[in-house]
Please model this.
Amino acid sequence: MTGTPRRRNIAPPREDVLAAVMTTVAERGLDGLTMAGLGREVHMSSGHLLYYFRTKDELLLQTLEWSEARLGTERRALLTAPGGARERLDAYIALYVPEGHRDPHWTLWLEVWNRSQDADDDARARQAAIEDAWHRDLVELLADGIACGEFRAVDTGRAATRLRALLDGFSVHVTVGIPGTGRDQVLDEVRRYVDETLMTGPASGGGADAAPGPASGGATDVTPAS
Model:
């Protein structure tokens, strides 16, 4: 008598697992994300998940990298789109800031940041690569705006670092739901900061990001920082 063939436990595509992580975080938050629960979602045992991802920390970091790759594609598209540098900078900022309270991508970012205190060198380097991609694109955008006369001559590396620090701080507030820091309010505050520190014209002040001019004996640095 021939028995019924046993079905092999075939793992789903990696992207299906990572997408399921993001869906779970969006619907139930990080507290609702367990290896057993995720396994049920993708029809795998928690043991199989650990076989493929080793640890929950690694699963979260891979999910973040996957989500960032999708955002990176969107970011590069908007940075090369027609329009002025200010218009593209506003689009960059809008993509950076969370959609609202408990935004799944930023919720995941905050968790990975928190866990990175005990991360190994490889995990830290991968997180730094994500940060560097956002920074390089912003430096290039600022340099482009300076070259076409939309932005004041500033040290692009310093200006990008300070603008992203502002965006990070506000984005944490949006994600955790601090009153008075909703997405629309944050976007308005950041636009004002850009007006005050980057835009040309009589309304813009000197600011700490201004590059030294001839009067101080320094050279104006408008090239992207490496």
